[in-house]
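<instruction>
Derive structure tokens from the sequence
<data>
Labelled lines for chain and fold
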Amino acid sequence: MNSDNLGYVTDLPTDGQSILSLAARSLFDVFANASEGMLLVDRSGRVVWINDHYRRYLPALGFEKEEDFVGRPVVEVVQNTQMGNVMETGKPILIDLLSNRAGTFLVSRFPLRDESGVVIGALGVVLFDQPETNLRPLMAKFALMQRELDEARNALAAQRKTGPALRQARYSFASFVGASGVVTDLKRQARRAAQTHSPVLLLGETGTGKELLAHAIHASSPRARGPLVSVNIAAVPDSLLEAEFFGVVPGAFTGADRKGRDGKFKLADGGTLFLDEIGDMPLGLQAKLLRALQEGEIEPLGSNQLVPFDVRVIAATSRDLAKLVREGLFREDLFYRLNVLPLRVPALRERASDIPNLVEVLSEALALRSAVPQPEFKSEAIALLSAQPWRGNVRELRNVIEQLLLRCESGCVDASAVEAVLRESGLSQIVPARVEPAFSDPMDQMHSAADSTGQQWPLAPRIRALEVRAVQDALNHTRGNKAAAAHLLGISRAKLYQCLV
């Protein structure tokens, strides 16, 4: 190989086909040496070659020798493989997560073609064999989404198996929309609580989603195949609460059902009893509830027989139970009986970063239910919604979105429409959307702030600035079309809204 005086190689191939062949060989060598493993399959889907790095996965996949692995259909030896899909469509899968008995891997898959362009096989490349370490944030999100999908599937399967006659959870943890830190931590604690049989006490303002969370806990618990029975104590007259809880034997009192009636404890046997608004329970019934929880048995009205039950209790309240105890309005011993696993459900204003996602999910569900098109929410509208205090929390946000959907005629919801609905909804004060300082570029904004303090910004604001710049560039490219910009960036519209808020 010769070189001229400038040090450049002069005898490289000059025709396009030879250069392409050289590039293909070079790229193959790069993958073979830099990746964590490579696998080739022929047009029939059989494994024809693996490199040295891939051999280390064979024991975990159930093979002692390479000869037992090579030559067999790839679908039989690699669980969850998509190599067949690549050969069928002729399209590569550049980045994917593959989970099987050998672990979880970040992989790429490429179709192989002959000179006439016919697909003759496929190449699989393991980019990372420990994505939990190398791609920790991505893996955390993937694991969370997979877990919530599994929970939703399990809840649906249980409901189908037991039939509609049995009371079942209608929601899973995937239904509790949010990825903010407080919501992520709440779901983590709730999942741990779901695996126990101890009482759970859900605390939080009205409209935060306490009932939804109770359903999710039941759906993820060992009692998921049992019934979930709910009682809203504030909605039942005090005179009927005892019968509601413990049931009535036939002819117990004048006007009672001749056949008797089972109470909620009996209906929830083997499952979960959800006591909503527990702080509104009268003192007289509190003593009887405490005894039932301690003894695991009830005495129906008009009966002298004790009936055992097996129920896990989830209680919820929007009131300050500790304060009620101090004021003598709630029994201290019952409070301690219920307050074993307390979970505080945050107010919506404490997780404003979740509002873009909530708007996306709620508007889609309401549009489907009302048979109207789902409108696009302008970034200014999202910013205004995110700035509100939401005294009614998610329930109030849902009401506002439903009003906006039914009023929308243009296919877009802007800030003026949001402001009109908020004003007519009776809010005494509308909080304006936060206005960022006018910098020509988010990176300029970051550098200007750093210069003014004489310090360097940490990594998170730098990443945030880059995300904002990317979104702005995409919007400029799509002439303000947010759906197209989100598609161009490979993100959801909710994520795009988050970058703009």
Notes: The CA atoms of residues 86 and 445 lie 44 Å apart. The chain has a mean pLDDT of 82.
